Structure prediction request, 720 residues.
Amino acid sequence: MFIAVIQENFDVTEDEKRMHQVKAFLQNKSYKAPSQGLKLSSLFSSKKNNMNTEAAQSKQAAFEMLTKQAIVESFLDEGEQQHRQDVTAGGKLVAAAAVENLQMEEEKRKRFFQRWFAKAGGVWRDRETNPFYSFQSRSVADLAPTALAQEVVTEAERRKRAQREYLAKHPNYNVSLFIFGPQNKIRRMCQRMVGPSRANVRYAGLPPNTTLSYAFSIVIYCAIVAMVVLACFTTPLYQKEYFAKHGNSSKNWFTLVDAGFVALFTFESAVKIIADGLIWTPNAYLRGSWGIIDCIVLITLWISVASSLTNKDEISRAVGAFKALRALRLLNISGTAQDTFHSVVILGGKKILSAAFVSLSLIIPFAIYGVNLFAGQMDACNDDNGIMNLTDCIHEYASQPFDWDVLAPRVVQNPYFNFDDFGTSLFILFQIVSQEGWTGVMFNAQNVVGKGMQPQPFHSQVNSLFFLVFNLLGAVFVLTLFVSVFMRNYTEQTGVAFLTSDQRTWLELRKLLRQVRPSKRPDKSPDSEWKGWCYQRATHKHGYWQRGVTVLLMIHGMLLLLEYHPSPGSLDRTRDWFFLMLNITFIVNLVVRVIGLTWSNFVKSKWDIYALLSVGGTFVTTLLLLAGYANPMFVQLQKLFLVSVVIMLIPRNDQLDHLFKTAAASLTSIGNLIATWFVLFLVYAIALTQTFGESIGCVWLIDEILIGYRLDEDRAARKR
Prediction:
């Protein structure tokens, strides 16, 4: 409900959705997100990659037809036909109005620093525009959809003309590293090896060679996978054990392997930089988000390897976590996953930061109020027998850890959860936002008596209102706000956010229609009475035969519910015999379907193939179990087959079948999202392991020393 309420504030009206659709369509046509390297999914979609020239021309013709003024106005359901206006004239009018407004505002300014600030801003605005990266002088969001359509149609030629004029004025702009010109043989060879670092078309250059670029990308991708696996394996704890066993040597195998990775990735970056330039070129390497990430990772890899070879482990540990960013390149397994990450995380990062500031504006007041309420009031004596004032917490008391009588000193200690200062209070509330341990903090607050007083159980229960209110307003709101922001970024990236109700209904219907397949039937009618009977039983979904099989499946499911632990062996053996008999009936049903539909039509149904595997596996494992083969792993396999039989109820119920088809229609999108978040989790896991792995190992070592020290003290106490 909270997510629905927040999402409602992000939504636009039905009348505005079509306008947003036109603008999103036109902007995505001209400003498509840059890709990075080879998408492995493209290896299995040769039909899409081998699009011929006629198909590309027809696609461009369709785009030009859709951007005509009459088509756009018809789509927007505009009643009045607007006259076509010249985009350049409109730009002049907007510029004149902007100058006039600027002059009026300048006259109102009276402060000295404001006038100088305005002059500095004017110099920045009057700088020469680079048509390769910031061609438009005004935002396309300020244009009407019809004007925007005209703008996009004419923009390509105007952009090319402006780019030619810019290169004529700056002839060295398209010279990579100020050495390799557009016709340089080395640069053209590098362009054949990699795709453009920014955008999808390389300006005044060669397109990548399919075979060469795929081979090079596969080598780089395999190196990335190997480096990620190596980072997961060679944790700081592993390195510590390796050095303890083989000695502390800088020329160890994992450092040398990292050096090999550095050499390979340096070669890759050099090829891309020579092919497209570093910064001041049309397709510059550092003009794309993926290029910046790769550059940061490469620099940190160089520092890490150099510090490891010179035995400066503290520097290597400080920058070693950045190698985890290379795992982001694993998103190349799917172009959709790569686009999702770029749109939701990189382009939507501004919204995520805005949500973070909104969340902090809610948490900070509670943190300040928590300091005022509970500062210094959660101190407690470790002896809770008769101590009322903390000044009495002195001397020793009889402690009984593990039922051992041990004299221990009385100590006033502060619990882990406290509000003694702003930083600690903010940290505790941040943990409460994640719903971690907030009940323990609340119970400690309810025990508060006062400063210098021993806490008593439930003495101040009214203090729980602070945590309940924060948990409701803070935790729920903050979590749902971030979820809503991510949902909005994703729906805007996919276009679902701007769909009208009718369009959304049509898309859902189209998803379901794509899952619908006609039932396979024999080409000829059955030539015998027995085959005709089997055909009738196999094709009538609601006949008595199918209903009987459904009832048996439900009985099978109820038998699974009878399992409990510990159960008598006679019950388990009886259930196994029932399972065997039920599976025999299921096998008979499959035989009837094979005879009625013929084998060629039977194997075309995915549900029939699933039933064949599930029922066959259940029959074999149950028969072997009754024969006395009771290996624990084999028993678990038999239970897995037994549960899989229950799933056969889905196609026999219309509601369940509808839900299953709805989920199956979104399976590709769900898989891409899972791949995206898995890569993010992997990045954080590698980064945290490389950063804190050694310190965690030190903590384990300290714990072992303390445990040994305590055991020695206990032995000495028993001797005394």
Observations:
- Residues 46-59, 78-99, 135-141, 695-720 have pLDDT under 50 and may be disordered.
- Residues 667-719 form the longest helix (53 residues).
